[in-house]
Amino acid sequence: MKEQIQKAEGKLGILTPGMGAVATTFMAGVIAVNKGLAKPIGALTQMGNIRLGKRTESKYPLIKDFVPLANLQDIVFGGWDVYEDNVYQAAVHAKVLEASLLEKIKPELEAIKPMKAVFDRTFVKNLDGQFIKTGATKWDLAKQVMDDIENFKDANDVNRVVVVWCGSTEIYFEASEVHETLANFEKGLKENDPNIAPSMIYAYAALKLGVPFANGAPNLTIDIPALVELSKETNTPIAGKDFKTGQTLMKTILAPGLQARALGVHGWFSTNILGNRDGLVLDDPDNFKTKEVSKLGVLEDIFKPETNPDLYGEIYHKVRINYYPPHGDNKESWDNIDIFGWLGYPMQIKVNFLCRDSILAAPIVLDLALFIDLAKRANMSGIQEWLSFYLKSPQTAPELRPEHDIFKQLMKLQNTLRHMMGEDLITHLGLDYYQDLVDVLS
């Protein structure tokens, strides 16, 4: 497979539907790194190591030196937004990064200007789109997005493009007949089917052009048979959904540890306060429902109550998100975890995580963009489950239960990279070290 991976030649365009706090923090961060002003902390592609061979060989190269990823200096940014602000103005408004840093990269940020967005307030009730596309049908809007991608490539002399959804959470709805097949979906675009959301229009346009698409929100978007079918037809990788950042990141770290020690869990109460655009959107019950479904599935899939009812059969899991403008992008989460141990004796764990939503999400955007570009050059198409590591509600084949344990997800990701590069997979069994010793002594 190593020989089949195309080189990362030329420029890589990263387009983001949504150019708010997450996208601008990501773009500003990469530019700052390229100018030597900061380090890409939190980006596995840039800071992470991977073990190769036996432990005795002590081979731990950086991932970016092991697999042929695009160089950060070769990235060109673009995207769409419902507001006309350039990235500098949007970053100032988001109040995530310090003004002193933004001033040092102001010319680069001002040069990145959004394209008009596809917007339908039915799907995001708490936002008012001002800088939006118009068209007679959703098919026309998809064509406009395709034109945007092609024009961006030509204008920036870009060799390859990937799209990472950084927009808002859309309202909750379930897949229906229009999502079942590609033929139904294209008919629905031409007939303005109300069950085709804006995020699906972006995804359709990207996949139609063979452009990889990753979904950073809990929206249905590419998690429908029609767009999975299109991704295979155009030999294009997809990954979704919902960036794993604050509270859910902590859950996928803590819950596997409790399960590994066979400790029981009676209840897990989670609440958040958040004041950015994401928090405003989630203040609407229909949009919160989409996020709630994404968050609730994590513990159920890690603990699997049906396989161990003595430990998890009566778990009560509650999630709340409250919009609190004074906190801005500084999300604060509280978790109360009621656990029990030997002979059923109760204990409690309290977690108070004061995080920064976009600071945690920005490196995920970078990693997903670089890895899904690698997948495209490695001729991989359809659902990329090995990218579950970054996602709150991983997309899998219909017959597969998603894996939420972050440590298993990391192992899957690293073994996929080893497989791509022709290296031996690592199981961490380790018996061979001791078998050699037995052979020597026998």
Give me the oligomer status: single chain
Count of individual beta strands: 11
Distance from first to last alpha carbon: 40 Å
Number of domains: 2
CATH class category name of the largest domain: Alpha Beta
Classify the beta-strand content into a percent band: 15-25%
Give the overall shape. globular
User: If you consult CATH, what is the topology of the largest domain?
Assistant: Rossmann fold
Computed CA radius of gyration, to the nearest angstrom: 22 Å
How helical, in percent, are the residues?
A: 40-55%
Write the layout of secondary structure elements.
Layout: E1 12-17, H1 21-34, H2 44-47, H3 63-66, E2 75-81, H4 87-94, H5 99-104, H6 106-110, E3 115-116, H7 138-156, E4 160-165, H8 182-190, H9 198-208, E5 213-215, H10 225-233, E6 237-240, H11 247-260, E7 264-274, H12 277-282, H13 285-303, H14 309-312, E8 316-323, E9 332-340, E10 346-354, H15 357-377, E11 382-383, H16 406-420, H17 431-441
Parallel strand pairs: 1-2, 1-4, 2-3, 4-5, 5-6, 6-11, 7-8
Antiparallel strand pairs: 7-9, 9-10
Helix pairs in contact: 1-4, 1-15, 7-8, 7-9, 8-10, 11-13
Transmembrane segments: 12-33
Organism: Filimonas lacunae
Domain Myo-inositol-1-phosphate synthase GAPDH-like: 246-358
